[in-house]
Design a protein that fits this description.
- This protein has 524 residues and is of the alpha+beta class.
- The protein has four domains: 140 residues, Jelly Rolls, CATH 2.60.120; 120 residues, Distorted Sandwich (Glucose Permease (Domain IIA)); 66 residues, Roll (SH3 type barrels); 53 residues, Roll (SH3 type barrels), CATH 2.30.30.
- Helix content is 19%, strand content 37%.
- It has eight helices and 36 strands.
- A hairpin with a 4-residue loop joins strand 13 and strand 14.
- Helix 1 crosses helix 2, helix 1 runs antiparallel to helix 3 and helix 3 packs antiparallel against helix 4.
- The longest helix has 26 residues.
- It is elongated and about 90 Å long.
- The protein starts with a helix and ends with a strand.
- It holds the Pfam family Peptidase_M23.
- This is Murein DD-endopeptidase MepM and murein hydrolase activator NlpD, contain LysM domain.
- It comes from Hymenobacter gelipurpurascens.
- Keywords: Hydrolase.
Length: 524
C-alpha cells in the first residue's frame, strides 16, 4: 500500500468528518451556525467539539455515534481500494477497529508486554512454571490483585521481600476522576533485585483488572490520571530468589494547573453539587474567590473554542484541553482576553475574574468547570487540588523488617488496612509467628503462616523470642512454610538442637544455630 495515498485518503476523511459533524451540531446547538462560515483551518476543532466533546453552556454533552465515524472512515478506505488494491491491509485494520469496543485503541490492540508479563513469559518458556517456586510466583501475582490490602492516599511504606519465597503484595485505593496518581519505589542501598510495579483499575463489569501503568527496576516511578471515580490496585512483586528492602510512596497530584493566578484550592468557596436556585439545580463546578481583575489562566494546553456571554455565566471562555480530551469552562469573567481558535499554553491569561452573569450580587470569583465527552460536567476539585504532602516516616522501627514477631495478647486481630476500625482478615493466637514485611506509620504489615498478609498495630506484637530449645530425636526436613506441599529448605540430622520461635497447626517454626529459620512438620 502506498503511504502517500493513504495519508491523502485520511486527509479527505478529516474533511468528510467535518461535513458530517457540523450539520449534526446544528441540530443540537444553533449557536454553531455562524462557526461554519469561519475559515477552514478551524474545522478540526468544530468536528472535535461536535462529534467527540461537544459541551454547551447547559453542561449537556452530545456525541456523534461511533458507528457513524467508523462507517465514514471505512467508506473512504473502500473508495481508495478501488484504485489501489494494495490497500487490503487497511481494510482489515478498519474492520478490526469496527469490531473493537469504544474504549479500545490501536495502542490497546498492539500493546507491548509489560515487564511483569515478559518476566512471566520467560518463566513459562524455561518451564519454571512447572516447579513449586515458579507456580508460587505466578499464584502470588494473581492473589495480590484479588486479595489486596486497602490503603488511603497518601501512603508510604518501608517494605521487605525475602529471597526464600515467592511474594507479591497488592494495595487497593480509591481515586477521584481527574486525580493524577504518582507511584514511586526506591530500593535500599545494596538491594540487587528487579521489582515490578503494575497499577490496575478494578471495573465491576469486568472480572479481569484493567492495566493502567507499569514499571520495573529500570524506572521505578510512574504517573497516570484517573478518568473516573474508581478503585485501583497497585501490585508490587520482586523477581524470584532475591531479597531486599524498599520505600514505596503513592501520592495524589492535580492533573490541571490551578486556573486563578496566585491562588490554590484554599480559595475555593463553593463546591460541586451545592444546591442552586432553591434546589432547582446543582452547582456543576467550583467557585474560586479572588479580587476583581485577578487573571484567570489556562489550566491546560489547548485551543479556545468559544468566547461569549450568557445570562447564567456572564462573560465566559471555553478551552479545549487537547491533552486530556475535555473542555474547561471559565465563567463570571470581568473581561475576556482571548479569541475563538486561539492556541494557549498553561498559565496564559484568558480573562479577568469578575462577577458577571447571575453572580452580580456576589463577590468576584471564577466559576470553573470541567466537561468530559460522554460524561458532561464532572467535579473539577480533584483536578486542581494541591498535591499530597509527603507522609510522615513510619513510627515503627524499620529494623523490624524481616523479623518474626508474636502477639502480646492471647488473640490478635489482623486488619486489611492500617487503621483500627478497618475490616479484619482474621485473628491469630499468641504462639503464632508473623513475618514483618512492611512498616507504615505505627502499623506493621505481616505475613501469616497461611501466606495471607495484613496489618497489625506495632504495639500489639513483640519479637519472637525462643519459646524453648529442643533436640530432634530423628532426622527431619526444614520447610519453607507450614504446608504439606512446601519445598524442603534443609535437612536436619538427629540430635540437632533448634530454638522454637512459634507454632501453627502442629508445625513448629524453628531456628538453627546457623540462623536459618524454617518449619518442622508435626511428625518431627
Amino acid at each position: 500500500m502506498e503511504v502517500g495515498g493513504l495519508v491523502g485518503a485520511v486527509k479527505v476523511e478529516v474533511k468528510l468528518l467535518t461535513v458530517l459533524t457540523i450539520p449534526y451540531t446544528l441540530l443540537n446547538k444553533p449557536q454553531y451556525a455562524q462557526k461554519t462560515r469561519r475559515k477552514q483551518t478551524h474545522w478540526f476543532i468544530y468536528a472535535q467539539e461536535a462529534g467527540i466533546r461537544n459541551t454547551g453552556s447547559s453542561g449537556r454533552t452530545s456525541r456523534l455515534p461511533l458507528g457513524l465515524l467508523l462507517l465514514s472512515f471505512l467508506t473512504t478506505i473502500l473508495q481508495y481500494m478501488l484504485h489501489r488494491l494494495r490497500a487490503l491491509p487497511a481494510i482489515l485494520l478498519a474492520l478490526l477497529l469496527t469490531a473493537c469496543s469504544q474504549s479500545q485503541t490501536l495502542q490497546g490492540i498492539f500493546q507491548k508486554s509489560t515487564p511483569h508479563e515478559e518476566y512471566a513469559r520467560r518463566l513459562r518458556q524455561a518451564r519454571l512454571d512447572e516447579t513449586a517456586l515458579g507456580r508460587d510466583w505466578l499464584r502470588a501475582a494473581d492473589q495480590a490483585l484479588h486479595d489486596s490490602l486497602t490503603i488511603t492516599l497518601p501512603f508510604q511504606e518501608r517494605g521487605f521481600f525475602p529471597a526464600d519465597r515467592a511474594s507479591a503484595v497488592g494495595y487497593r485505593y480509591k481515586v477521584r476522576n481527574g486525580e493524577t496518581i504518582h507511584v514511586s519505589l526506591k530500593l535500599a542501598p545494596g538491594t540487587d533485585a528487579r521489582v515490578f510495579l503494575d497499577a490496575f483499575e478494578l471495573r465491576p463489569s469486568q472480572p479481569k483488572p484493567h492495566l493502567l501503568a507499569s514499571a520495573d527496576t529500570t524506572d521505578l516511578s510512574f504517573r497516570y490520571t484517573a478518568d473516573s471515580d474508581q478503585q485501583h490496585v497497585l501490585r508490587v512483586q520482586p523477581e524470584l530468589l532475591r531479597a531486599g528492602r524498599y520505600t514505596l510512596r503513592v501520592l495524589r497530584e492535580p492533573s490541571l494547573s490551578f486556573p486563578v493566578r496566585g491562588k490554590n484550592d484554599v480559595a475555593v468557596g463553593s463546591f460541586w453539587g451545592v444546591a442552586r436556585d432553591g434546589g432547582a439545580r446543582r452547582h456543576e463546578g467550583i467557585d474560586i474567590f479572588a479580587k476583581r481583575g485577578t487573571p484567570a489562566i489556562a489550566a491546560a494546553n489547548g485551543f479556545i473554542t468559544r468566547v461569549n456571554e450568557t445570562p447564567l455565566g456572564g462573560r465566559v471562555v471555553w478551552l479545549a484541553d487537547t491533552e486530556h480530551g475535555q473542555h474547561l469552562y471559565y465563567a463570571h469573567l470581568d473581561k475576556q482576553l482571548v479569541q475563538p481558535g486561539q492556541q494557549v499554553r498553561i498559565g496564559d491569561t484568558l480573562g479577568l475574574v469578575g462577577n458577571t452573569g447571575n453572580a452580580r450580587t456576589t463577590s468576584p470569583h471564577l466559576h470553573f468547570g470541567v466537561y468530559r465527552g460522554g460524561h458532561g460536567a464532572v467535579d473539577p476539585f480533584p483536578f486542581v487540588r494541591r498535591a499530597d504532602a509527603l507522609p510522615a516516616a513510619p513510627v515503627a522501627a524499620p529494623e523490624r523488617l524481616g523479623q518474626w514477631v508474636r502477639a502480646k495478647d492471647a488473640r490478635l486481630a489482623v486488619h486489611r488496612s492500617p487503621a483500627a476500625k478497618s475490616a479484619t482478615i482474621g485473628t491469630t493466637t499468641k504462639p503464632t509467628p508473623l513475618l514483618v514485611l512492611g512498616v507504615t506509620a505505627d502499623w506493621l504489615r505481616v505475613q501469616l503462616p497461611t501466606g495471607r498478609t495484613g496489618f497489625v498495630a506495632a504495639r500489639t506484637v513483640g519479637t519472637a523470642a525462643p519459646l524453648r530449645q529442643v533436640a530432634l530425636q530423628v532426622a527431619a526436613d526444614l520447610y519453607g512454610s507450614p504446608q504439606k506441599s512446601a519445598p524442603a529448605l534443609d535437612s536436619l540430622p538427629a540430635q540437632t538442637t533448634v530454638a522454637v520461635l512459634g507454632e501453627f497447626s502442629g508445625y513448629r517454626l524453628v531456628r538453627r544455630a546457623n540462623g536459618r529459620v524454617g518449619w518442622l512438620a508435626p511428625a518431627a
